Amino acid sequence: MAERFPQVQGGGSLILAWQIKEKHVLVVGGGEVAAGRILNLLNADANVTVVCPRNGLNPEVAFRVSEGQVNHIDRLFEPRDLDRVDMVLTAIDDPEASTAIWKLCKERKVPANIADVPPECDFFFGSVHRDGPLQIMVSTNGNGPKMASNIRKQIAATIPENTGAAIQKVGELRKKLRAVAPSPAEGPKRMQWMSTVCESWALEDFVDMNDDDME
Questions:
Q1: Does the active-site annotation cover 116?
Q2: What is the phi/psi pair of residue 179, to 5°?
Q3: How far apart are CA 157 and CA 90, in angstroms?
Q4: Distance (Å, rounded) from C-alpha 210 to C-alpha 150?
Q5: What confidence score (pLDDT) does residue 203 get?
Q6: Which end of the chain lies in a sparser environment, N or C, as judged by fewer CB atoms within 10 Å?
Q7: Helix 32-43 with 59-66: angle, nearest 10 deg
Q8: What is the pLDDT confidence band of residue 1, given thresholds at 50, 70 and 90?
Q9: What is the pLDDT of residues 75-122, one digit of tens each?
Q10: Is residue 162 classed as helix, strand or coil in its secondary structure?
Q11: Cα 136 from Cα 17, distance rounded (Å)
Q12: Over the stretch 49-84, which tens digit does the pLDDT of each residue have?
């Protein structure tokens, strides 16, 4: 009987598409690693605050500060910086300071990622392929970031270029279908219809679909 169910494989991470739109995220540090983290956060529509002396900002982070894309606190981290934040990322070359920040986050129950220190991370960043609404993440659970990048590139190379546009059209079609059949009782029927369409139509069909086709 047990053979009919999936085998448990411990040691993994719970892969989620974490919704942090308008959440307050603190980034400690302003170097290259911080720049990559900041871009990921902005792509997810988070409200980002960077704590780092101005002379420690790399060109990309300095640009985002000057453009008003992120808030900037021109000094080293202080415990009060954790007030009213929803997430913390550190990317500084100071292991002791990073660990101190992690401990403060644990006390306040704020999820944190301490760059390059897997034991002090509540979550990991993976290697991500992005095409509009399509996001594919490869994670090695902190074991091999470079390998994750290589695997991500191989996966991305197999995906048709118009996949993101096709998914966008599927989303529009779902919204129209929900407007036509809004009742919760019709949910299973909507899901079945969308499943049938997605399995029987080619990506190109979705890309070429216009409003008249959807109607």
A1: yes
A2: -70, -35
A3: 32
A4: 36
A5: 78
A6: N
A7: 40
A8: low
A9: 999 999 999 999 999 999 999 999 999 999 999 999 999 998 989 999
A10: coil
A11: 10
A12: 999 999 999 999 999 999 999 999 999 999 999 999
> Is the separation of the CB atoms in 61 and 50 below 8 Å?
yes
DSSP single-letter state for residue 82 = G
Alpha helix (H) residue ranges in the chain = 32-43, 59-66, 95-108, 145-157, 163-180, 187-200, 203-208, 211-214
Q: For 93, which DSSP code?
A: S
Reported residue count of the chain is: 215
Q: Which residue in the list 86, 94, 116, 122 is annotated as catalytic?
A: 116
Rounded Cα distance, 133 and 166, in Å: 10
Q: Please name the helix (run of DSSP H) or strand (run of DSSP E) that holds residue 29, with its range, or none.
A: none
Both structure tokens of 187: 């949910």
CA dihedral 15, 23, 50, 42 (to 10 degrees): 70
